[in-house]
Amino acid sequence: MNSLDSDKLIDGKAAAAKVITEVAAEVTALKAEGFEPALAVVLVGNDPASHVYVRNKVLRAEQAGIHSLVFRMAADSPVEAVLEVIAGLNADPKVHGILVQLPLPAHIDEQLVLQAIDPAKDVDGFHSDNVGGLSQGRPVLTPCTPAGCMRLLRDRLGELSGKHAVVVGRSNIVGKPMAALLLAADCTVTVLHSRSREPQALSRQADILIAAVGRPALIDASWIKPGAMVIDVGINRIEEHGRTRLVGDVDFASVLPLASAITPVPGGVGPMTIAMLMQNTVTAACQQRNQAASEPAKESACLSTC
Ligand code: NAD
User: Fold this and answer.
1) Pairwise CA distance, residues 115 & 132, whole Å
2) How far away, in angstroms, is 171 Cα from ligand 1 center?
3) Is 268 in the pocket of ligand 1 (CB under 6 A)?
4) What is the pTM of this model?
5) Burial track 103-138 (b if 16+ CB lie within 10 A, e otherwise)
6) What is the number of the ligand 1 atom nearest to the C-alpha of 214?
7) Going by CA atoms, what residue is nearest to atom 13 of ligand 1?
8) CA of 233 to the centre of ligand 1 (A)
9) Which residue among 53, 124, 167, 213 is best mutated to probe the pocket of ligand 1, counting the most ligand atoms within 8 A of its Cβ?
10) What is the pLDDT of residues 211-246, one digit of tens each?
């Protein structure tokens, strides 16, 4: 890679470390006032990838000074048992953020569980109150991956107003909230999906391209307008020469020469997702604290949203 191309690389690890440092400063200020933000993670079953994700979340929480609690439950736990744990966490004033690690075992209704979380503690932003608030442009707890993408975009481009953003993928977790956030930032937004016709031609109009599909190297040079900023959310495991490798949805080698900036996989969006979870936890903690104390926001140690 020449130096021109390496300037195009967006370092998600460095950006995430910056967010964690900011969050840690907020947590320090809160602790000085005798208030400790806490995040509870509910992990049901033995999915190895989920265990790794939860370990990483706990590690980042520690780095940010956030107290974390993990509730590990057997894979055959009945949904009632999961709902009981969530009800206990909803009622606990010392817990400010609740995250249920997905996917849940097949016998558990994911929506039922996500809807059981108090929206004020819903740090993944998946409860319908938060989803609705986002689409109405109200300040809410925002899904972490799209929030992380927005931060990367703003860090690199500054003002996003008027830019044409194309989001490839329309999932509830990434594509739809991503489109809502871009719209709230006054972008012109096009959402492409598996039934879209001539996706390359539409995608070539994008100043900003977000790929959230789950198909290795789907997005090649034929999708890219020269100078576009490309955010690759995809995480795909591929077997190559007997080894497993992580790749995104973007064919990095063919897109890099055209893009003005691009996130690598790994090391792009992934680290930002966890960093934004920590940000959401502190935001939720501040809001709950202010509500409990009915203090004016300006007297709070919270620097971000409250
Ligand atoms: P999903 O399977 O729920 O949704 C995929 C979307 O892609 C669908 O809306 C579908 O319509 C669309 N699609 C499928 N084929 C298409 C095609 N040929 N052209 C255009 N659109 C097409 O997936 P998801 O949960 O949104 O995740 C997408 C990817 O992002 C996955 O690789 C996932 O692992 C990754 N992901 C990464 C992070 C992170 O932190 N970096 C977080 C969440 C998801």
Assistant:
1) 13
2) 7
3) no
4) 0.95
5) ebbeebeeeebbbbbbbbbbbbbbbebbbebbeeee
6) 32
7) 194
8) 8
9) 213
10) 999 999 999 999 999 999 999 999 999 998 999 999
What string of DSSP letters covers 190-235? Answer: EEE-TT-SSHHHHHTT-SEEEE-S--TT-B-GGG--TT-EEEE---
| The predicted structure's pLDDT at residue 3 | 76
Instruction: Judge if the upstream peptide bond of residue 93 is cis by omega within 30 degrees of 0.
Output: no
Altogether, the residues listed in the chain come to a count of 306
Residue 92 burial by Cβ neighbours in a 10 Å radius (0-12, 13-18, 19+): middle
Distance from C-alpha of 101 to C-alpha of 39, rounded to nearest angstrom:
13
Q: Left if phi > 0, otherwise alpha if psi is -120 to 50, otherwise beta: which for 34?
A: left
Answer whether 208's CB lies under 8 Å from 165's CB: yes
Residue 304 has pLDDT above 70, yes or no: no
pLDDT band at 57 (very low <50, low <70, confident <90, very high): very high
- Annotate 121-161 with three-state secondary structure: HECCCCCHHHHHHHHCCCCCCCCHHHHHHHHHHHHHHCCCC
Q: What is the DSSP string of 41-89?
A: EEEES--HHHHHHHHHHHHHHHHHT-EEEEEEE-TT--HHHHHHHHHHH
What are the structural domains, with CATH classification, of the chain?
33-118 (3.40.50.10860), 144-270 (3.40.50.720)
Tell whether the torsion through CA atoms of 12, 177, 69 and 112 is positive or negative. negative
Residues 6+ positions from 40 with CB-CB distance below 8 Å: 68, 69, 70, 71, 89, 92, 95, 97, 98, 99
